Amino acid sequence: MIFYKTNNEIDLDIGNRHIVIQRRYEALGAINDLLISIWFLIGSFFFLNDSLIQSGT
Fold first, then answer.
1. Given this model, what pLDDT does residue 19 score?
2. Rounded Cα distance, 26 and 51, in Å
3. What is the rounded CA–CA span in Å between residue 56 and residue 9?
4. What is the pLDDT of residue 9?
5. Pair 44, 56: CB distance under 8 Å
6. pLDDT of 23 strictly over 90
7. Cα separation of 37 and 43, whole Å?
8. How many angstroms separate the first and last alpha carbons of the chain?
């Protein structure tokens, strides 16, 4: 187990586990971005109908 500190970030290098954790983190970030964009599109469509404007906000 090796610790690296660069640019105010701490990197814990523990071999293959580090790679697995990093890939999971990146996948969760991509899923989060997708969900945010879906919510944004739904809210945008709600603004097209006067009765749904309050729900869109």
1. 73
2. 38
3. 38
4. 59
5. yes
6. no
7. 10
8. 48
The pLDDT assigned to 39 comes to 93
Distances in Å between the alpha carbon of 15 and those of 3, 19, 27? 12, 7, 19
- The two structure tokens encoding residue 43: 């809210």
Look up the pTM and report it.
Answer: 0.59
At residue 6, does pLDDT exceed 60? Answer: no
Render the burial of 4-27: b for 16+ CB within 10 Å, e for the rest: eeeeeeeeeeeeeeeeeeeeeeee
C-alpha distances in angstroms, 47 versus 35, 36, 42?
19, 17, 9
What is the rounded CA–CA span in Å between residue 27 and residue 57?
A: 28
**pLDDT score at 28:** 92
Q: Which two tokens stand for residue 16?
A: 């293959």
